[in-house]
Amino acid sequence: MKNLFLAATVGLFSVTSIFAQSDVISSQFGVKGGYNLSNITSDDFGDSDQLSSFHLGLFMEIPISERFSVQPEVLYSGQGFASSIGNAEIEHKVDYIQVPLMAKLYLVKGLYAEAGPQFGFKVKEEIDYKPNSDGGETTIDPDDSQLRGFDTNLALGTGYKFNNGFSLSARYNFGLNNIYKDDSAIANLTNIDAKNSVWQFGVGFSF
After folding, report:
1. Is 144 exposed, middle or buried (0-12, 13-18, 19+ CB in 10 A)?
2. Which residues belong to any copy of the Outer membrane protein beta-barrel domain (predicted)?
3. How many domains does the chain have?
4. For the whole model, what pTM was predicted?
5. What is the mean pLDDT of the chain?
6. Torsion of CA 33, 92, 173, 50, to 10 degrees
7. Domain span holding position 145
8. Which of the two ends of the chain, N or C, has the fewest CB atoms closer than 10 A to its terminal CB?
């Protein structure tokens, strides 16, 4: 996981250096983090509930014009969903390294709308059979997992950036591909098509 995060971070700075060469002074590096509400969307899965988690990472905002900029990011994002089997509730937790590439349009000073693709790399997966107590977590080996290791999303959001570099944001990420492998048992038996659905509410600071 450390190597993956390092590779993603190197990729972020490689992309930003290409865009920022002509205007290094106005480009801003920053940190961000916040609260996640995650679930899946599926017509085949039945009922599922949201999970609460967090996201944390780095970004670089690169102005293209006075009102438009691009913002590559590298985030660690806790996601997943909850479901019920009989009377038992089970939490399926999936952590990703997410790499969004956002286009930001400032509508007025400070207030912006953003949109862009996001690419996710699964780094950890576990099932919690006792979400309200200790001892129910089972880590899933990647070779035994029924979930894909790569996920593609479209991210839409809005936010406000203050003059001191502090910012507030809200973003919705919806998956574009089935999170289950084509040859997984659950996909073969039930033909499930499930996609990630994540709300992110965050704070950031630009240097």
Report:
1. exposed
2. 19-180
3. 1
4. 0.84
5. 86
6. -90
7. 2-206
8. C
